[in-house]
Amino acid sequence: MNKALRKVIIAGNWKMNKTPSEAKALLSEIIPLVKDADCEVVACVPYVDLAVAVETVKGSNIKIGAENAHWAESGAFTGEISTGMLKEIGVDYVVIGHSERRQYFGETDATVNLRTKAVLAAGMTPIVCVGELKEEREAKITEEIVGKQLKLDFAGISADNMKNIVIAYEPVWAIGTGLTATPAQAEEVCAFIRETLAKMYSKDVADSVTIQYGGSMNDTNAAELLSKEDVDGGLIGGASLVSSKFSAIVSAANA
Ligand code: 13P
Q: Taking the complete model, does pTM exceed 0.90, yes or no?
């Protein structure tokens, strides 16, 4: 990470875990543990937990994120949630294009693009997830896959808006598997993402975008991953559900 150039962000992605009362309890445990963090600390929680999460973290340094958002302002989209609804509750970040949404819920680069634009327009920060499948890494086409995702996911997004986007590099084979990308593998792809942004936009934009690593990041491997120049934070699944582990990752980012 390079704190001089960009914001370091440690974000939990709780996925489909924790009821509202459990969310309140977990955040209450995390608050005192991360109060001296010298990075941005975010908890992305299920929709029904958002209101209680925002209330619970009031007065603390923790920001709250949602895990998805629809692109339309309102309308006949049963089961969906708009950016306006999230903004009014007090949400600051929205995870977009997580591989679980791409794998199980028909998310495409085209819908990631629409959702990202809607989140930006509402004044929130999208955390846009990209990453290759195991077969794609084995076929040595990781850069081709991630490069294509970046081009399609950010099509039509201006340089100024790009500076307000966070990218999470999450190799799909490392998510929830206990298999972590080595620090060198994480750095290689995060650096490739930054080079691609420099080509698509400018060096200035590329230098300012926070690029997180996600995929089995935990309290024991975080420090080494975060020591890499182009790894500016983490998007953490399993370990974000345990206050001691999540706060240890935040401490690793403080170093
Ligand atoms: P795990 O940390 O559980 O591997 O999940 C990573 C992830 O998908 C974060 O978005």
A: yes
Residues 226/204, Cβ–Cβ less than 8 Å: no
Determine phi and psi for 16, rounding to 5 degrees.
Answer: -95, 65
Tokens encoding 183: 């620090």
d(CA 23, CA 19): 6
Atom of ligand 1 nearest to the CA of 218: 2
Per annotation, catalytic residue among 67, 136, 170, 187 = 170
Question: If you measure from the C-alpha of residue 76 to the centroid of ligand 1, how many angstroms do you get, rounded to a whole number?
Answer: 31
What's 9-252's CATH class? alpha beta
Sign of the dihedral defined by the CA atoms of residues 90, 96, 99, 103, in that order: positive
- CB hemisphere CA count around 57 (13 angstroms): 27
Q: Does residue 1 have a pLDDT over 90?
A: no
**C-alpha–C-alpha distance, residues 143 and 45, integer Å:** 30
> What is the DSSP code (8-state) at residue 236?
E
**Cα dihedral value 228, 172, 248, 68, nearest 10:** 110
Tens-digit pLDDT profile for residues 88-110: 999 999 999 999 999 999 999 99
What is the domain partition of the chain in residue ranges? 9-252
8 A C-beta contact, residue 185 and residue 213: no
